[in-house]
Amino acid sequence: MLGRLLRQCGENPSESEIQDLINDVDSDASGFLHFPTFLNMMSKKYVELNAEDEIREAFKVFDSDGNGYITRRELKIVMMNMGEKLSDEEIESIIDDSDLDNDGQINYEEFYIMMNSVK
């Protein structure tokens, strides 16, 4: 699932590169990437690349309908595709923590701030 997500972000990692990424950030050795860990991993990776373009590509992965907002449903689906089954409460917490204008969803600017805050 992580490989598919990275490919949607414009990367083409090998299976060993994907496993190396997971090993680097999987502090509890669960074999899964939790959402904050995923954000941390992606933000570290984007420091080395053109951060603005890469974060925009990551946003597009989450914004599956392309309307400029990440909804609770979109967040939950992408995370499930990554093997991360989040509860409704966890989804609410992520949205609430990132939703600066309190419209119930995450726009690109809020996503960008969130990605940069985990560095």
Automatic annotation (TrEMBL):
GO cellular component: myosin II complex
Entry keywords, A to Z: Calcium, Repeat
A Gene Ontology molecular function term of the record: calcium ion binding
Record-linked Pfam families: EF-hand_7
Domain EF-hand: residue ranges: 13-48, 50-85, 86-119
Regions crossing the membrane: none
Alphabetized CDD domains for the sequence: EFh (cd00051)
Gene3D superfamilies: EF-hand
Function: Troponin is the central regulatory protein of striated muscle contraction. Tn consists of three components: Tn-I which is the inhibitor of actomyosin ATPase, Tn-T which contains the binding site for tropomyosin and Tn-C. The binding of calcium to Tn-C abolishes the inhibitory action of Tn on actin filaments.
UniProt name for this protein: CALM
Native species: Lepeophtheirus salmonis (Salmon louse)
